[in-house]
Amino acid sequence: MRIRSSVTSISWIPSEAVSGAYKLPFSMGIAHYDQPPPVAFADLNALRALAGEDRFRFANWLSGWIDVEGGRVVGAGLDGDGVVSSTTLRLGLGSITFAPTIYPALRPEPEHRADGSVRFVQTCGGRTGVPAPRRVKRPPWFQVAAASAWTTLELVLHPDGRAEARLIGASRFPRHWIYDATGTLTQKTSVTDFKTWSTGSFGDHTPWGASDSPAIVHAVETALERQLAGVIMREGQKPAMRRLDAGETLCEQGAQGHELFLLLDGVLEVLVDGAQVAEVAPGAVLGERALLEGGKRTSTLRAVTPCRVVVAAEDKVDRERLLALAENHRREASGAHGRPPTGDGSR
Which of 169, 231, 258, 297 could tie 152 with a disulfide, CB 3.0–4.6 Å? Predict the structure, then answer.
């Protein structure tokens, strides 16, 4: 019997994720942030089509199989591919497209483990062809080529048919979304760090130089939160933004508040009466209970990592959607969907 499964990462540049002088081309419309990728894709051909439409920067598709006889693995193999998009810059009435530099995929031999399972690992990535002159942290102290971006995926197949997949390493920029064997979005990295990435991700400090970096990964937001994020980030309207350092408070329990929050980057902890009841990741929409119940915050939101948060006026989202969000948070708090508890859902 052959057992097969796969895992995919799609990496893209979220709104306002670029900092420093490199933000200027994005502000001027020369370069562009990416629209969020789809929450599902059909197959590898669909993934390549998305790359041709300039929908993401690169993707890592890992597929593995095992042959099982009598409960034992008698054969194993790995398929995989890296898909890297070109980069188009708009200059006046025209544009120029830069082909990417695609690094060779790193695929160690399948690891047959003592419990009978087989572990597959694949690293894919590269860098844009756009010149990116910048100072860096180590010799030669200056680089012209862009920094390297990558993901490292792990897939473990068991003789009983179980499959486990996860992101075990990634560059600190851009954002990486993780999809299961059905092509459905399941997880995403929570923190992007453009400055650290742009000054440090080259040469020996990449998997091609035997150095990877761990990634902070959380479950995806709900479909309702995704819809609300689209409303809050509606094209053509520049949102109000707050940046928080780790340990900084976004709002205090008991304080008055009439804004809705959309977490763009980083991790926030939810505190009720001083105790942490949850952590939330990018895509979370917060603060609806204060808008519905007299303007008083019923929990404290504090940054676990540096965060970027959109602050939206209370009239940005209609009351019906706010009620649906509040009810969804209540269900999460009761564990109805198996997600981490979020206190009383009030936020």
Answer: 169
Q: pLDDT at position 338, please?
A: 39
Q: What is the largest CA-CA distance in the chain?
A: 66
Q: Are residues 163 and 271 in the same domain?
A: no
pLDDT per residue as tens digits for the range 47-64 = 999 999 889 999 999 999
The answer to whether residues 310 and 173 belong to one domain is no
Q: Which tokens go with 153?
A: 């995926």
- The structure tokens listed for 345 are 């859902």
- Is 125 within the bounds of a domain? yes
Beta bridge partners of 169: 152
Total domains in the chain come to: 2
Is 65 within a domain?
yes
Say whether both 62 and 93 belong to one domain: yes
Domain that holds residue 314: 223-333
Q: Residue 11: exposed, middle, or buried by beta-carbon count in 10 A (0-12, 13-18, 19+)?
A: buried
Residue 35 near residue 47 (C-beta atoms within 8 A): no
CB distance 264 to 16 below 8 Å:
yes
Question: CB of 55 within 8 A of CB of 39?
Answer: no
The 10s digit of each residue's pLDDT in 145-204 is 899 999 999 999 999 999 999 999 999 999 999 999 999 999 999 999 999 999 999 988
Calculate the alpha carbon distances from 191 to 160, 194, 216, 267 in Å: 35, 10, 7, 7
Query: In this structure, is residue 339 part of a structural domain?
Result: no
Give the domain-ending residue among 219, 237, 260.
Answer: 219
Amino acid identity of 177?
W
Which position has the token pair 């499964």? 5
338 domain-assigned: no
Would the CA dihedral through 192, 198, 204, 206 be positive or negative?
positive
Distances (CA, A) of 9 to 4, 164, 254, 297: 18, 15, 40, 36
